[in-house]
Automatic annotation (TrEMBL):
Pfam families per record: Cas_Cas4
Organism: Streptomyces tardus
PANTHER family: CRISPR-ASSOCIATED EXONUCLEASE CAS4 (PTHR37168)
DUF83 domain segment(s): 17-171
Name under which the protein is recorded: CRISPR-associated protein Cas4
Span of the signal peptide: none
Gene3D superfamilies: 3.90.320.10
InterPro entries linked to this entry: Dna2/Cas4_DUF83, PDDEXK-like_dom_sf
Domain of life: Bacteria
């Protein structure tokens, strides 16, 4: 299966949270996504995540930044992200740091973030400061390099791909 012919430079110009999450989860997934390959539209796990997002924290309002859509931001400038995962992931925190960076670039004095895991009734705080800002900027640079690459990054070990909507592309015959 060949991904659609999209210009990855256009994608790299506007990095959203999904780009950073994919970069941290699997650079190959980011590379494919940047080229328009979007199998998550057919994924039951993605659909389940959307239901979890739609049915939890229903009083909140999304913050649409154009390139990124933040689940919500509290009055104290705390970024909130909801995940349907049953386990915290470094990619989730990286996504929140990216949102903090995008807000800061727009003049918002961000204090940090929180990742909510409603299925396990747990939250993870994501601090924001000079170190977190540097991590977010480094993630952006590295994600842009992956997107600009002429060839797809190597695939992960198959065991790391369980539940990934890109599994068939990477491991199919």
């Amino acid at each position: 299966m060949t991904p659609p012919d999209n210009n990855p430079a256009d994608e790299a110009a506007q990095l959203g949270g999904i780009h950073i999450k994919y970069f941290h989860h699997c650079p190959r997934q980011l590379w494919l996504y940047a080229r328009g390959y979007r199998p998550e539209q057919r994924s039951e796990l993605v659909a389940f995540g959307e239901v979890v997002d739609d049915t939890t924290f229903t009083r909140r309002r999304d913050v649409d930044l154009g390139e990124a859509k933040i689940d919500w931001v509290t009055a104290g400038a705390i970024v909130h992200e909801t995940k349907s995962s049953r386990a915290p992931s470094p990619s989730h925190a990286a996504q929140v740091r990216h949102y903090c960076l995008l807000l800061e670039r727009r003049g918002v004095s961000v204090r940090g973030g929180t990742v909510h895991y409603p299925l396990i009734r747990r939250t993870t705080d994501v601090p924001w400061g000079a170190d977190a800002r540097a991590e977010a900027e480094t993630s952006e640079e590295q994600a842009r390099a992956v997107i600009a690459a002429a060839e797809a990054p190597a695939r992960l070990k198959r065991s790391a791909c369980r539940g990934c909507s890109y599994l068939d592309y990477c491991w199919g015959d």
